[in-house]
């Protein structure tokens, strides 16, 4: 991985114009340093340097995929979302290329699309298939090194696809602070003369249906060949503005007011205002992106089961925090199936009725478990884990085997073995370990079930999402952060059921 | 004297460490626009606040540490106003090794920093720990877990 990482990074250099701007600052800075013998008014210093600062930006998205639109980004049954997928969205062409947006899906916060670029003459096809037209487009902003890299890799570059996210965000009445991210992959080529990609673009917040369409274009074709993706149709959503105080983080007692929340089958956006400054003690960030959906049939779906990922924004002056959560798993396709969202200790009905304290057994508060294994994957005390989850745990001292069952998944673990049985099926436990003597990582070594102080301990990745394999219990087990930063508690892990 | 001939001149230092600062900024932010902002801020601080360095290694370490500290504040700052043209969105890069880059971008920023310092700057975990003000064991643990996440993402995408 080191070699690949280095090769990848070696392609990146700042634009020459940026370097020149910084060097121009250096000229100003040198002057100011010489004048430092005399007292200098601070304001003049700031203005003098600010004059040399220009923020230049570009735009692009990187894309690719081997799978269909919904299958790229979501697991589970996505058939209920198909009616919201736009097909044959549009095309634009010049004398050499045709750009087509084949399909698109917008959930109010993220645009997902599949696109095709087709060469319309022999030379154009050759330049497309060889990646020359994509690579050479990057010369001006990225330099020859990037061009050479793209010619070698055959991949898209940062300026290959562009869109008008800023305009859309500002039309919606919000300050545009930049793209919240995106990505994608190249798909199988639909013909000998074309290439296809699936791409995603994430806004910083929920925007909902928009009259302003997204314009998407290929960098080397120019905006005059953009295709419009209507954003006026969004999969059904539920929106709340409860302004209700609740216990945001049970681990440290942080309270907050839920000011806004919008839920769709593929995302949740919510805003809170902390009561006072955000507490920074143990587990301060453990419940970011944490929520539980209570369905009308009485079942619960946790954020862990939805495979969430996301980002945050903060307005520290007003103690406001926004959470932008994308789901990897589709568990429902009609938001009307959801009765309420549980944040912390409070249940917020989606019909807008008064929030109430959630039932004790539905709060699924996070809890701490012991942490072991500093030189490799985390281990934890299985008895403590099962106790916290309310899972069944049976220990057989004669065979040194523990059998644990949670959410209908039974795991059988034997001390000294690196193989476990998951619902009767064998699974080998492997991971990377740190070799202290050689100061390097040793890859893919067997991980053994162990005894620690007479109690069975097992690698947590087996049970937790977001790990190398496993995640058999759809729970989250992660480090505990301390003191408002990323410093870890060496003795505990936090579990989200 | 040509300022670039003086190894300690601001111009020479900026040229010498331009790629290094930019690549760390890019690894941390995941996009060109933020990386450029961060790049400018790091060198602005160098020009106005750099101490007297005892060695070239000291200077390099200082620049890297400032880049990391600026990145930490960069993303916890109140919403930043941008002066870019409304018609343009931010870049999402795809250098060679597109799959690796796409999956790296899905990792948390703190993981990307540690991976970059370890894999690209060839720093030991002790050096990374000292730079980030953390326990070396913490850094090793973070590195292992970031690798594990990355491997999973790479496997999932085939």
Tell me what the structure shows:
The complex is a heterodimer of chains A (497) and B (158). Chain A is an alpha+beta fold. Chain A folds into four domains: 2-50; 69-231, Immunoglobulin-like (Sandwich), CATH 2.60.40; 238-362, no CATH class; 367-496, Copper amine oxidase-like, N-terminal domain (Copper Amine Oxidase, Chain A, domain 1, 2-Layer Sandwich), CATH 3.30.457.10. Chain A is built from ten helices and 34 strands. Chain A is globular and about 75 Å long. In chain A, 45% of the residues are buried. Chain B is an all-alpha fold and 158 residues long. In chain B, 66% of the residues lie in helices and 0% in strands. Chain B contains seven helices and no strands. Chain B has helices spanning 10-29, 32-49, 56-74, 98-105, 109-119, 125-132, 136-156. In chain B, α1 (10-29) packs across α3, α1 packs across α5 and α6 packs across α7. The radius of gyration of chain B is 17 Å and the shape is globular. The chains are: A alpha+beta (497), B mainly alpha (158). Chains A and B meet through α1, α2, α8, α9 and β6 of A and α1, α2, α4, α5 and α7 of B.
In summary, what is this structure?
The complex is a heterodimer of chains A (497) and B (158). Chain A contains 10 helices and 34 strands.
User: What's the overall average pLDDT of chain B, rounded?
Assistant: 74
The SSE string of chain B, one letter per element, is HHHHHHH
**Helical content class of chain B:** 55-70%
CATH fold name of the largest domain in chain B, please? Rna Polymerase Sigma Factor, Chain: A
* Biggest β-sheet description of chain B: none
The average pLDDT score of chain A comes to 84
- In CATH, the topology of the largest domain in chain A is named Immunoglobulin-like
Q: What is the C-alpha radius of gyration of chain B, as a whole number of Å?
A: 17 Å
Output the structural class of chain A: alpha+beta
Portion of residues within helices of chain A? 10-25%
Assembly category: heterodimer
